Amino acid sequence: MSGYGKAFTRMREEASEAWQDYTHHAFVEGMKDGTLPQAAFLHYLQQDHLFLTHFARAWALAVVKSQTHAEMLAAVGTVTALVCEEMQLHIGICEAAGIPRKQLFATKERAETLAYTRFVLEAGYSGDLLDLLAALAPCVMGYGEIGARLAQQAGSQVYADWINTYGGDAYQELCRTVGEMLEAALIHRLGPEYETSPRWDRLCQTFRTATELEVNFWQMGLTP
Ligand SMILES: Cc1ncc(CN)c(N)n1
């Protein structure tokens, strides 16, 4: 198992090829060894700041789609972590690199950012919490896996702030919470044998598409 729960592990297995491309993309390996050009990193961060804006909206939608207090708590906690920690990281790194907050908030959205964020939001608008979580999980847990691996393997300090955020205790705890939320939400709606539900394949397909959109997002980062 992955450490982020059974449902996540099973969905990841169903998307194993795309998952490998996502978590071991050249962009990621460039952060690991410090060879990623700073221009690519800053370009990615500016798009990612936009991404996080929409992503926080999608997690707020998860509050709307919640059916239990535990689901609401997990969703609210994730909105808070996104707005108060992740977005702050991006604002701080950009400001330190000479990109003021005003410029960051005026970033023009790339097609890859638009495609991914609107895919996630649409999954939530047209579906229930399970459809939404299947689209959100690759983002949360993928960065958790990447951060944990890079914290172990990084041979350079260049991207230490980024690596320490996603490899750190607070983000890893968030991944475990979202993994538990996904598992409990599936059991609550489909029962403990949720993998035998007619909905399971579709949920795995949503998870896989979101994973492929993550690959495209890294690739966009390499082409400022
Ligand atoms: C594109 C993307 N995917 C995931 C994460 C981690 N929340 C992120 N910041 N950006």
Structure in a nutshell:
By secondary structure, the chain is mainly α.
Features of this protein?
mainly alpha, 224 residues, Heme Oxygenase, Chain A, EC 3.5.99.2, hydrolase, Thiaminase_II, Aminopyrimidine aminohydrolase, Thiamine_Salvage_TenA, 11 helices, binds 5-(aminomethyl)-2-methylpyrimidin-4-amine
Question: Can you characterise this structure?
Answer:
The protein has 224 residues and is mainly α. It has a single domain, classed as Heme Oxygenase, Chain A (Up-down Bundle). The protein contains 11 helices and no strands. It has helices at 6-14, 16-23, 26-33, 38-65, 69-96, 101-105, 111-126, 129-153, 160-167, 169-190, 200-221. Helix 8 packs across helix 9 (160-167) and helix 8 packs antiparallel against helix 10. It is globular, with a radius of gyration of 17 Å. The chain starts with 5 loop residues before the first helix and ends with a helix. Bound molecules: 5-(aminomethyl)-2-methylpyrimidin-4-amine (NSP). 5-(aminomethyl)-2-methylpyrimidin-4-amine is lined by residues 48, 51-52, 86, 139-140, 143, 214, 217.
